[in-house]
Design a protein that fits this description.
The two termini are about 20 Å apart. A hairpin with a 5-residue loop joins β1 and β2. With about 90 residues, this protein is of the alpha+beta class. A 4-stranded mixed beta sheet has the order 3-2-1-4, covered by helices on one side.
Length: about 90
């Protein structure tokens, strides 16, 4: 895992909805849904996210599409939201 300012993060969202991030020369692939190896966000992380969006415009859109929700657990919607949040924080994501 990493903890750096958003401006030190680069990445892109693939056609399949994987958010590929590069931090300090190391690549991370985020797939948008939890797994047994992905812990739930801590209470502090949840508070930080609320505080982040309190000072910015939240992502727009109607939420996950029907097929994304049914077949993918809204993973593509999650990764698009994460990309939007990183970009709003100054990360070089596309």
């Amino acid at each position: 895992m990493f903890a750096v300012p958003a401006g030190q993060v680069a990445g892109r969202l693939t056609r399949l909805g994987t958010l590929l991030l590069t931090v300090g020369g190391r690549r991370y692939a985020l797939v948008g849904r939890g797994a047994s190896v992905s812990p739930d966000p801590s209470p502090q992380q949840r508070r930080d996210l609320v505080d982040f969006w309190a000072h910015r415009s939240a992502p727009t859109g109607d939420g996950p599409g029907f097929l994304d929700q049914v077949f993918n657990g809204a993973a593509a919607f999650n990764t698009r939201s994460w990309r939007t949040a990183l970009a709003a924080g100054g990360a070089g994501v596309r």
